[in-house]
């Protein structure tokens, strides 16, 4: 693996201060004394340049904050929709699909666009970093990091709530360099983040950082880069189902770079983002144009989450209010948010299967259903150029065609183990 000279710096979206990346681990915050704000990567190359010989998504490495190129990386696939487009009366509907759909060139064996996040995060780890990466996940992120860390022998600890275990599989036995930690009991993604942070604060570990990691965001931003590479212009509408909103923040950041380049259009790109009802904190806040999410008690939130089909959309602490986060992106794009009921998502998924021929992740079904709503309300016009981000799918094919091995946790933590002192003790290397 060839090491790259840093071709990026990190700029605070609040105070504008520029930072070099950290010599060990990742720089995740500005550290100036102000309100929380996301950092953004700024690249030396202001032009959108493709490296045609680099593997998969690394052909966009000029605009990825990475220190090396990993071999065998996947890429999102852009496809024109004919049948579903016809059904909806949309002539210029394009999908960007991340998942498993071999005859269309989509070869992500972990089945979701989390496989666009894990490779650049791993490729951002500085040379000589000896500590272990700590990643928290509800399921899809864990599956992607399991695969990428195993393939490239990157020492990592992955923390998931026990309910996420059925969604974890690998195509090969899990190597020793990756430790899977499962949390027992009534815990969710948010608890996994809390425990992950405790582990990451122990000697010998460092945090991946979630939405604060620019490699994660710009990795997801390659969805927009793939679209522009193929179509030569920015879309007028961008549709995605969101849990944290990180993917939407990511394409919004990429749009800014493409505008600065100047060759790909100058019009607005409207963000159309959907959540799975009844868990719709960001929809509710955005509809009132509120920067703050409305307070909801824990029990209420957990009950709503339990009633949704798309569990990957159930982030209780999304980067919505933070400067440079989802509220700002929605505001700048004059965005729209949609609440999608389970039945509507399921119906949209069935129509997608009938028209286009692939099963979708329940979250991607939510995105398709939100497009149906937009057509109904005439928010999109027949000739508008539309990017529908299909964030996951092809699981049925994958299970039929590949030997998917369930992954067993190495460590199971029960609620009594979750005190900080006990965590520190268990994870001393
Ligand atoms: C994580 C995930 C989402 C939500 O993405 P965010 O941008 O983090 O909100 C949507 N669909 C699938 C399949 C996912 O795995
Ligand atoms: Zn700052």
Automatic annotation (TrEMBL):
Biological processes, Gene Ontology terms: coenzyme M biosynthetic process
Domain Tryptophan synthase beta chain-like PALP intervals: 106-392
GO molecular function: transferase activity, transferring alkyl or aryl (other than methyl) groups
Cofactors, names only: pyridoxal 5'-phosphate
InterPro entries: Cysteate_synthase, TrpB-like_PALP, TrpB-like_PALP_sf
Top-level taxon in the UniProt lineage: Bacteria
The keyword Signal is annotated on this UniProt entry: no
Keywords of this entry: Coenzyme M biosynthesis, Pyridoxal phosphate
Magnesium keyword on record: no
A Pfam family assignment: PALP
NCBIfam families documented for this protein: cysteate_syn (TIGR03844)
Protein name: Tryptophan synthase beta chain-like PALP domain-containing protein
Species whose genome carries this gene: Candidatus Moduliflexus flocculans
């Amino acid at each position: 693996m060839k090491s790259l000279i840093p071709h990026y710096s990190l700029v605070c979206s609040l105070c504008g201060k520029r930072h070099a990346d950290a010599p060990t681990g990742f720089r995740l915050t500005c550290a100036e004394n102000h309100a929380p704000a996301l950092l953004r990567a700024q690249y030396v190359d202001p032009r959108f340049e493709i490296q045609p010989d680099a593997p998969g998504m690394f052909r966009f490495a000029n605009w990825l904050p990475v220190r090396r190129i990993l071999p065998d990386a996947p890429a999102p696939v852009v496809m024109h929709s004919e049948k579903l487009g016809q059904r909806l009366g949309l002539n210029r509907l394009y999908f960007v699909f991340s998942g498993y759909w071999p005859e269309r060139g989509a070869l992500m064996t972990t089945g979701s666009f989390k496989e666009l996040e894990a490779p650049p995060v791993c490729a951002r780890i500085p040379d000589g970093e000896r500590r272990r990466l700590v990643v928290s996940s509800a399921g899809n992120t864990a599956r992607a990091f399991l695969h990428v860390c195993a393939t490239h022998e990157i020492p990592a600890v992955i923390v998931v709530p026990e309910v996420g275990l059925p969604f974890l599989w690998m195509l090969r036995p899990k190597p020793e360099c990756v430790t899977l930690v499962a949390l027992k009991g009534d815990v969710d993604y948010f608890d996994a983040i809390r425990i992950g942070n405790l582990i990451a604060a122990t000697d010998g570990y460092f945090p991946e950082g979630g939405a604060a990691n620019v490699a994660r965001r710009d990795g997801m931003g390659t969805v927009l880069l793939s679209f522009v590479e193929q179509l030569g212009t920015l879309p007028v509408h961008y549709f995605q189902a969101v849990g944290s909103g990180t993917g939407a923040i990511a394409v919004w950041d990429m749009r800014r770079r493409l505008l600065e380049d100047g060759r790909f259009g100058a019009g607005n790109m409207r963000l159309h983002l959907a959540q799975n009802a009844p868990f719709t904190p960001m929809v509710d806040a955005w509809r009132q144009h509120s920067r703050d999410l409305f307070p909801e008690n824990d029990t209420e939130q957990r009950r709503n989450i339990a009633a949704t089909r798309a569990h990957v959309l159930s982030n209780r602490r999304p980067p919505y209010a933070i400067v440079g986060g989802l509220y700002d992106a929605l505001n700048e794009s004059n965005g729209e948010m949609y609440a999608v009921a389970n039945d509507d998502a399921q119906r949209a998924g069935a129509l997608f299967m009938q028209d286009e021929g692939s099963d979708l992740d329940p979250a991607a079904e939510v995105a398709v259903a939100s497009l149906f709503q937009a057509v109904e309300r005439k928010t999109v016009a027949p000739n508008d150029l539309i990017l529908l981000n299909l964030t996951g799918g092809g699981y049925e094919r994958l299970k039929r065609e590949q030997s998917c091995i369930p992954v067993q946790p190495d460590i199971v933590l029960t609620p009594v183990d979750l005190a900080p002192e006990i965590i520190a003790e268990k994870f001393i290397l």
